[in-house]
């Protein structure tokens, strides 16, 4: 597996400004309800460029909802969402499409397109969305498959791959769009235990060798400790505690955090 | 009653004419129903109810009135409005239109069966909506519905004798004509009965082969 990732850093059409630690994602007073249930309640939340932020907390606490809001898979009821200084919500559809190019997502259930080979899964969006020439997109797709350790699986269909391999293809597919932010939604939860390490290794590599901003929801506390700059503890739609992983995991201030950690660790 | 092989021999030239017409009606009718059904299914998914409502009413109407009535209407009433078509063309359109209102429901089920995660992945990759339909949703949906579409091909085959009512000489029409001219009913009717079984068996083999090819 190649550990240097020039793929992520070369300049491109929607050129990424240098990482300067400035604010990249911002949620202002965001409220999200599902029926009677208020999942996020006037949440303020921001992530700086290049940071690796992990969201932890009990299920139903709104972590995944934040990722889904950022990916525009669901809309907030109130509030504003800003990415890289541009409005993602509320915003006209055309602007949403532009801003969304800066965001990539990896799903719990991989969601690869089963009717396409691994290579085509990765090439599809760069060709149709970014207008990249086919041979260039294919070369990049091959490089990305190499990066995730699946150089020999170019022509495999998702059904011919293990869950771990599918998830690594999904990571490559998200990276192919050169997003500034990578959203990781419980990316190892659907995997057999022996396949988790391979996926986490790939993500660790990416975290170490690129300047991509990561926002993860995970129950893998070791992974969170390993790659995060910042851990946010969620409970009932609010951030109840945040800080560097060493602090949150070793000396949490809140009782609720202590309870949660003792339950999952 | 005696079985007369000579009658079979005499009927054969007419039989082959009838087979040809039946197959034309079946193949063209199927193609129309597959294409038009998909159009209906997609129109029913547009956000505008000014599209969905008329499409819903028309297809519901066509599905719930007899094919025979529709064939008569197309054949005898349309010319009064200045639209004259050959009997076979009318029949093909009638069968295709009628069955498109069934295939649309098959497509709808197939489209709804594509997991939400596929739409979400397409959104996450910023794929345009049209492209998402083309390369993600429809290939998966259609693959799922081939067996169900196949059942309607068999049903259409069994409805082709209705075309006799608008003067199309398909298999049954040829058999009836021959019977009336020669007063021999057993042989021609038996021959076309066997032919219906053979055609539907061959069609199901063809569809199963198609199904296997589409499995991923």
UniProtKB/TrEMBL annotation, chain B:
Residues 19-207 form the ABC transmembrane type-1 domain. The gene is ehuD. This is Ectoine/hydroxyectoine ABC transporter permease subunit EhuD. The chain crosses the membrane at residues 20-43, 55-75, 81-99, 149-169, 189-210. It comes from the Bacteria. The keyword Transmembrane helix applies. InterPro entries: AA_ABC_transptr_permease_3TM, ArtM/GltK/GlnP/TcyL/YhdX-like, Ectoine_EhuD, MetI-like, MetI-like_sf. Its main location: membrane. The keyword Nucleotide-binding does not apply. It is a multi-pass membrane protein. Pfam families: BPD_transp_1.
């Amino acid at each position: 597996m190649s550990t240097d990732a020039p793929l992520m850093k070369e300049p491109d059409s929607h050129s990424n400004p240098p990482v300067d630690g400035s604010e990249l994602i911002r949620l202002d007073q965001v409220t999200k309800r599902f029926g009677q249930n208020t999942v996020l309640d006037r949440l303020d939340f921001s992530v700086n460029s290049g940071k690796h932020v992990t969201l932890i907390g009990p299920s139903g606490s709104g972590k995944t909802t934040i990722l889904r809001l950022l990916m525009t898979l669901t809309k907030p009821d109130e509030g504003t969402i800003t990415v890289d200084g541009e409005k993602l919500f509320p915003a006209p559809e055309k602007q949403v499409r532009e801003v969304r190019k800066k965001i990539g997502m990896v799903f719990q259930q991989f969601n690869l397109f089963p009717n396409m080979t691994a290579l085509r899964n990765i090439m599809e969006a760069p060709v149709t969305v970014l207008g990249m020439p086919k041979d260039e997109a294919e070369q990049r797709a091959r490089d990305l498959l190499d990066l995730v350790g699946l150089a020999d699986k170019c022509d495999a269909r998702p059904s011919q791959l293990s869950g771990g391999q599918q998830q690594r293809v999904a990571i490559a597919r998200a990276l192919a769009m050169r997003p500034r932010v990578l959203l990781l939604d419980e990316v190892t939860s659907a995997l057999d235990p022996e396949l988790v390490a391979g996926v986490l290794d790939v993500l660790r590599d990416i975290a170490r060798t690129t300047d991509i901003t990561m926002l993860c929801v995970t129950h893998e506390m070791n992974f969170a400790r390993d790659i995060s700059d910042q851990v946010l503890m969620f409970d009932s739609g609010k951030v109840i505690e945040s800080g560097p992983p060493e602090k949150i995991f070793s000396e949490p201030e809140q009782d609720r955090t202590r309870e949660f950690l003792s339950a999952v660790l | 009653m005696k079985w007369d092989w000579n009658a079979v021999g005499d009927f054969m030239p007419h039989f082959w004419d009838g087979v040809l017409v039946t197959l034309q009606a079946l193949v063209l009718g199927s193609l129309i129903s597959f294409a038009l059904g998909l159009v209906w299914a997609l129109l029913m998914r547009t956000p505008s109810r000014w599209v969905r409502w008329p499409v819903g009413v028309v297809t519901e109407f066509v599905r719930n009135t007899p094919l025979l009535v529709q064939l008569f209407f197309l054949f005898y009433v349309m010319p009064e409005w200045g639209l004259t078509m050959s009997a076979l063309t009318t029949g093909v359109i009638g069968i295709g239109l009628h069955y498109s209102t069934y295939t649309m429901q098959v497509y709808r089920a197939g489209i709804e069966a594509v997991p939400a995660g596929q739409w979400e992945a397409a959104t996450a990759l910023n794929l345009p909506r049209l492209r998402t339909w083309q390369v993600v949703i429809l290939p998966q949906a259609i693959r799922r519905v081939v067996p169900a579409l196949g059942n309607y091909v068999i049903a259409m085959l069994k409805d082709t004798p209705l075309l006799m009512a608008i003067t199309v000489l398909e298999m049954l029409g040829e058999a009836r004509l021959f019977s009336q001219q020669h007063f021999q009913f057993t042989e021609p009717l038996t021959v076309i009965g066997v032919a219906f079984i053979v055609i539907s068996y061959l069609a199901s083999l063809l569809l199963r082969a198609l199904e296997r090819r589409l499995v991923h």
